[in-house]
Amino acid sequence: MKYVLVTGGVVSGLGKGVTASSIGLLLKACGLRVTAIKIDPYLNTDAGTMSPFEHGEVFVLDDGGEVDLDLGNYERFMDIKLTRDNNITTGKIYQFVIDKERRGDYLGKTVQVVPHITDAIQEWIERVAHIPVDGKTGSADVCVIELGGTIGDIESMPFIQALGQFSYRVGAGNFCLVHVSLVPVLNVVGEQKTKPTQHSVRGLRGQGLTPHILACRSTTVLDENAKRKLSQFCLIQEENIVTLYDVPNIWHIPLLLRDQKAHEAIFKVLNLYGVVEPNLEEWTRRAEACDLLHEQVHIALVGKYTGLSDAYLSILKALVHASVDCHKKLFVDWISATNLEDATAKENPDAYKTAWKLLKGADGVLVPGGFGDRGVQGKILAAKYARENRIPYLGICLGMQIAVIEFARSVLGVHDANSTEFDPNAKNPVIIFMPEGSKTHMGGTMRLGSRRTFFQTKECKSAKLYGCKGFIEERHRHRYEVNPDLVACLENAGLSFTGKDETGKRMEIVEVPNHPYFIGVQFHPEFKSRPGKPSPLFLGFIAAACGKLDNMLQHPSSVESNGLSKAVGTGVVSAVKAHNKKTAMKPAYRPEYVYGSCNGYHY
């Protein structure tokens, strides 16, 4: 087993996760089998109880693991399925060691950070690295490890010590360290400054780790003078220093690494010879096609955490995947749900008017998952507007529950219909707490992971989008569900529950039949969306917002394939080829584009 460790220096948020994902994709494109591990030094056992404002979204895996959002990047880039053990936290390691101590496994020894914690970290890495994640049997060839945080953080020191020991444990030809660091450009002098990276590498060496490859984040390509300086002061060969400069979308990052021969540098360190050149033709076409899109589609995202785009990262990725396949340039109109409510009209009229203007100007409305009662009334108003004005609507988890509450209030006339999450004493609870849930413990007590949904009819839109299968498997994360006692009443009024669980009592998919696209799902389809293989529900949603859904449903093969080569169509592919012939230059880099972000949201 070969190991590639990715660390970060100077500041957080440099894009270590995207870099690690891109390295994994590049190695996979060379024919190697790749797995990934993310190390988060925080004390939480997992990300499940963390606020989206604190740490971005909680990504959910097939096995129900609630993990860091970077594992979502790994899955999307490398097209793999990870496990909860692929996310290591300080909380998990300490809990593991303390449990062993309580059982008496250490035979009376004094339990210390070194060697007991550091040994546990190394054993965890070695064990998880051999778990197959690509659907094949046997271990992967390479494990990409990302160490969260920044070099110098107190909480990451045990991991750095463990990884230093681990590099000697596996041997020099089996361990490669890629250090991602910042090379800022000061506006005053306009010069790329290498000193922060020099100090970062010095700090890394002082803790027992020596970088083999330096990945420098900068606004522009690293000039030769800066590269020479870094080589001299960091003791790294110039050919092992690569630049990760600002690009239109993050799909270009693997291409940057390939063009700068990063894979060859990694192979040299890992003693991997005779490996084929990376095949990234389809990935390149998709990245370039994305840059050339100009016809816009506006999606109103009505949520609670709109102040931080990372809180809805997987949803944004799924929207991008679907938009590219529909040949549209995505614009997300962020709407804080509270700004749609009547109270805001009195307290902040300008915010109220702006929110409603964005909602009414959108081609589609998406209400994502969330917790708590803040903004619920605004989400209900958004669902009502979409249903009554025949605007495509996609409700995910809470967004589905909101749609059911709105329907009960507006169509059935049950004006006090509510969820017991928002009102535990609701007289007409259309959404109730699941019997198997816990009201005293928050972590890991929801209905989590991959579950089957069985279609009740193959004539509904959702079934057609999934290729008329009998059932599907999607990932869940919820505590509340539609009240099964009210399902018949809701269906008699015109709502259709087209997907249910294996018992037939838990509602999974709801649709309004005579609407262009009004679908709510209890699961999270965004977690399984991939570049070139978008989630069917997101693809249908964007297609409906573009007025292309009927044509798509008439040609089910294009829905099932979901591949760029078939779904993007000859128009965009021809444009890419024409663009490549016309100029050999890189895509135009606009000032407003920042590494991994565009128009205010992250790709």
Low-confidence stretches: 561-576, 581-603
Percent of residues in β-strands: 15-25%
What is the straight-line distance between the termini?
32 Å
Rg of Cα set = 25 Å
Biggest sheet strand line-up: 11-10-12-13-21-20-19-16-17
Shape field: globular
Structural class: alpha/beta
Oligomer class: single chain
Number of DSSP-assigned strands: 23
Number of helices: 23
Specify the biggest β-sheet: 9 strands, mixed
Mean pLDDT: 89
Task: Provide the helix percentage.
Answer: 25-40%
Domain Glutamine amidotransferase: 309-543
Keywords: ATP-binding, Glutamine amidotransferase, Ligase, Nucleotide-binding, Pyrimidine biosynthesis
GO molecular function, one term: identical protein binding
Domain CTP synthase N-terminal: 2-272
